[in-house]
Amino acid sequence: MSLLDFARGPALQWSVFVFIVGVLWRLFGVLLLRSKKDLSEPRNRAAWKGLRLIALRSWPRREFLEGTAFGEVMGYAFHVGFLVTLFFFAPHVVFFADVARGLIGTDLRGLIGVGWPTLPNGIITLLAAVSVAALLALLVHRLVNPVKRLISNFDDYFSWFVTIAPLVTGLLAFSHLAGWPYERLLAWHLLSVELLLVWFPFGKLMHAFTIFAARGTTGMIFERRGASL
To answer: CA–CA separation, 91 vs 85, rounded Å?
Structure first.
C-alpha cells in the first residue's frame, strides 16, 4: 500500500470516524452539563433578546478596538480565506461528494438538490495564501506579546499547526513547488487534513461548533439580569 492509498483509505476513514464521534461526544457533554437554577427575579423577561449578542460580539466594542484590531482583522482574514478555500475549491467539492457518497450513499448534489458552485483556482490560491500569511502573523503576535505568550499553552500552538498544515501542503500540491511527485504531495496534504480532523474535537478548534451557542446563552443570561450588551 502506497502512502497515497493509505491517506485515501484507512487514514481517511478513521479520521472521519474520530471527528464525527468526537464532535458528538463533546456536544452531548455540553448538553448534559448540570446548571443551577437561577432563582433571582428577572429584570428583563424577554431573555431571548440576548441572542443578538451573537452578532454584537462578532466585532469588539469600540472601547477595546485599539488593542484588539490586529487580532480581529487577521482572524477574519484567516477564517474567510480558509472557509472559502475549503468549500469552494473545485477538487474539494469533488472530494466532499465522494465522502458523502461513501457515508450516505449519495453525493451532496443529490442530498441538497442543487449544485455546489466553485471559484477560479487563482482566487482560491490567493485566499489560501492570505490565510497562511494571517496565521503566521497571528503566531508572531502571540510570541512577541508578553500577555498572550504567558497564557498560551500546547493546545494553542498545536491547533495553529494542524490548521496551517493543510493550507501549506495544499498550496505545495497545487503548485508543485516542493519538487516532489504530485502523488506524494497530495498524500501529505490528505494526511495533514486527517490530523486536523482527529485533533479537532479535543482542542480549542471545537469552538467552531460551540461559539455561537455560547454567545447566545451568555447574551440571554445578561439580558435576564438587565446587563448592558
So the answer is: 10
